[in-house]
Amino acid sequence: MWRTLGQQSSIEQFSRSIGEDTVHHAYLFVGPAHTGKSTLAVDLACALNCDADEKPCGTCHSCRRIIEGKHADIIITTPGTPVDADDPNGTSEDGQPGRSIRLGHIHNLQHISSLPPFEGKRKILIIDSADRMTDEAANCLLKTLEEPPPYITWILLAEDENRMLGTVVSRCQRIDVRPLPAGQLEQHLTDTLKAPPEKAHLLTAISQGCTGWALSALTDESVLAGRSARIESIIQLIYMGYGARFDLSRELDTQYKKDRATTLETLDGWVTWWRDLLVTKGGCVDSIVNVDYVNDLNEQAGRLSMEQVRESIRKLDEARENLDLNVIPRLVFDSLVYSIPHISRPPSETGTPKGALQDKNVTQ
Asked: Which domain CATH number covers 238?
């Protein structure tokens, strides 16, 4: 039983390959975060090791072991995976936790791939965030992909294949993992998971078809609270004076050093907000993502020019690129908050909220 939602063409392709014994030695799953790449990879690992006629069954010994994360032949490597006993936190060369897939990670996987399966039919080596491999790691992996052992299947997961070494991409069979259409996701939330219709509609809109995020938000209120905090931070940033802006930059810098992924989620939330301002000014209200903040969007869109909105989106994209290029984070955040246009606070609001990055309860 495939647990992945909305990837039927890929599932059919895998089923044919398994039935015809034409499984590729390496796959590259490409798609946005939270669209089910990891679930699809684990499902494929189950199918390749399943003992039943209909693969994957999800109930045989092999499938259960894989789903529970206990199977000896299914290895998942992430940027935070320790390289050795001296690297318990998976820190990168600059001391930052979990920022990249490094040469040591690939050396470990190469050693594992040299050994035959221990308890299953096939070894599955999964590299999460493969688009965050260092150049050294990518070149090292390339040699393995060129001459793979017959009992190994590599699965690379990436959000942006353009950040990967082209020769690595060319050695893999590319699989698109797309967001689930809104109608299908909302129906799944209401009919299968019994979510209230209002909440299902909200989660469908703000998840943008990313099923993993929607399912997490349905069961964990902190996910919605974190998203609310990110939206509130960009709403208030537009009203802030420069002193408060640079205080926020310092908060972002501190947070980035402790938790890169959460800070990048904040920037992604800001991009979505400015995109919503763009479509609001264009009159395309049906395309708004943050449907529970329509009043704020209308108020700010009415006081910002189209050029200001477009330039802010460009500055946010530039900030992400600079962080990827290892520009000093504090400089990136200072430049970003300085460039965001300023408008005066509405008469109904006074003061500037403290702790703009702290979680707040979501309004529904």
From this structure: 1.20.272
Find out whether 135 and 165 touch, Cβ atoms under 8 Å. yes
Going by pLDDT thresholds of 50, 70 and 90, the confidence category of residue 294 is: very high
Q: SS3 of 101, please?
A: strand
Q: Please give the structure tokens belonging to residue 126.
A: 């999964």
Query: The domain that contains 136 carries what CATH number?
Result: 3.40.50.300
In a domain, 188, yes or no: no
Smallest CA-to-CA distance from 46 within 25, 21, 67 is with 67
Tell whether 348 is covered by a domain.
Answer: no
pLDDT digits (tens, 9 = 90+) for 216-226: 999 999 999 99
Q: What is the mean pLDDT of residues 326-355?
A: 81
Same domain, 64 and 167: yes
- Domain that residue 144 falls in: 8-176
HEC assignment per residue over 9-23: HHHHHHHHHHHHCCC
**What is the model's pLDDT at position 91?**
52
Q: How does pLDDT run across 135-145, given as a tens digit for each residue?
A: 999 999 998 89
pLDDT for res 159:
94
- Strand partners of residue 157: 29
Q: Which two tokens stand for residue 294?
A: 């329509």
pLDDT tens for 324-338 read 888 999 999 999 999
**Residue 142's closest CA among 166, 116, 113?**
166
Question: For the chain, what is the mean pLDDT?
Answer: 89
The CA-atom distances, in angstroms, between 152 and each of 117, 123, 256, 308, 311 are 9, 5, 36, 51, 47
Domain check: are 156 and 250 in the same one? no
Tokens linked to 237: 């940033």
Residue located via tokens 């490094």: 102
Please work out, in degrees rounded to the nearest 5, the angle formed at the alpha carbon of residue 233 by the alpha carbons of 230 and 236: 150
Separation CA 8–CA 116 (nearest Å): 31
Q: Which residues pair with 295 in a beta bridge?
A: none
Give the pair of three-digit tokens for residue 167. Answer: 């020769």
- The verdict on 58 and 138 lying in the same domain is yes
Can you tell me the distance from the alpha carbon of 122 to that of 73, in angstroms, rounded to the nearest whole number? 7
Q: Is residue 47 part of a domain?
A: yes
Peptide bond into 353 cis (omega under 30): no
Q: Closest Cα to residue 90, out of 108, 74, 117, 110?
A: 108
